[in-house]
Amino acid sequence: MDFLISDELRMIQLTVREFVEKEVYPRETLIEDGDCIPDELIEAARKVGLFGISIPDEYGGLGLSMVGKCIVGEEMGRGSAGFSGYHGAHAGIGTSGIVMVGSHYLKAKYLPDMAEGKKIGAFALTEPDAGSDASNLKTTAVKKGDRWLLNGAKHFITNGPEANVITAMAVTDPSRGARGISAFLIENTFPGFRVGTVEKKMGLRGCHTSEIIFDDCEVPEENLLGKENEGFITALRILANGRAGLASRCVGACLRLIEHSLDYSGKRVQFGKPIIENQAIQWMLADMEMETQAARALTYQTAWKVDQGMNIIKDAAMTKLFASEVYNRVADKAVQIHGGMGYMKEMPIERVYRDARITRIYEGTSEIQRMVIAAQMMKKC
Ligand SMILES: Cc1cc2nc3c(=O)[nH]c(=O)nc-3n(C[C@H](O)[C@H](O)[C@H](O)COP(=O)(O)OP(=O)(O)OC[C@H]3O[C@@H](n4cnc5c(N)ncnc54)[C@H](O)[C@@H]3O)c2cc1C
Prior knowledge:
Strand order of the largest sheet: 1-4-5-8
Bound molecules: flavin-adenine dinucleotide
Number of strands: 10
CATH class of the largest domain: Mainly Alpha
CATH topology of the largest domain: Butyryl-CoA Dehydrogenase, subunit A, domain 3
Number of helices: 12
Distance between the termini: 27 Å
Shape: globular
CATH architecture of the largest domain: Up-down Bundle
CATH superfamily of the largest domain: Butyryl-CoA Dehydrogenase, subunit A, domain 3
Strand content: 15-25%
């Protein structure tokens, strides 16, 4: 494994870092208080090609490797979690299914607009009865002539209200369980599609999560994504790659928390000296740094394995689990180092603390990741 990144990726890293510092940091309060992503931020993201990081250059994207996407994810993770969640759901789980298994027709039809951010993507697997038990879907798709008719409801869908192109899973053969699920590409303008309740959440403000309802939703037959009845495997592949991307955003958030904590503890004076001179504070900082760098190493190792075409089921689960739990521990320590100020909205720490919590739940809970890791280990017994 090569630990040096190419000059091209270094350039992309610096570009995204500058974008986050110039365009995202100044708008974080606006995103938080307004619970929306300002149009000018979306426009600025378009200009640097952020919407097309996963899309091959022949369809107008940057066609980054997984290592490249994690470098972008790390930089994006330093900024607003609402904005990076919105971007990640589009550029990661909302796009990768089309890139992985889409026909040339679907790629040519959707990817160029998605690369430019003219069309926003989402991924819709979860349903009220199918959370951790993700194959227990109730949404059905029945073939009628040259269309599929979808009926059912998805919930907790990131970008649900904004998405124009949704990768959604539905049951096509109820007798086959997980092997009777297919993936579809659904436009939000298709007859019978509607957005349901938009949830009120603990954090991730600016990034909207909603129900999506299919009521005899008419989907052209060519919008079947991949092969019939292979949609659950596609969903698992999308999620495995998504987990490395999510881990990179956790690492970015940790790095920013460490920067804030170093800065604050160096300036805050109690008992006549900066609090950083106390070993208790230094030990918290040391643990934050050590765990973040460990999460970072695991993330890039997994990303590298993706790029080598290796099986990453166990690696992706370990990476997502570890990085999200490190993120929560680092956020907790950052609040502690900031004392009362860590609890106040004047600083970003309390927001990041709230935003950290979701990473142990979505894209598979910590418990489910442990189940995946153990199942992969037991296969070798
Ligand atoms: C903000 C947000 C955004 C989301 N975005 C998307 C999205 O874009 N697309 C999408 O498809 N989904 C999305 N989700 C759904 C998310 O992936 C699920 O919420 C998650 O997988 C957990 O499912 P659940 O909420 O139904 O919890 P449940 O499955 O009901 O789990 C509840 C608890 O039980 C535990 N548990 C369940 N089964 C077991 C078991 N066998 N052993 C041990 N413990 C178990 C879980 O770990 C958890 O602690 C999002 C969710 C949220 C909150």
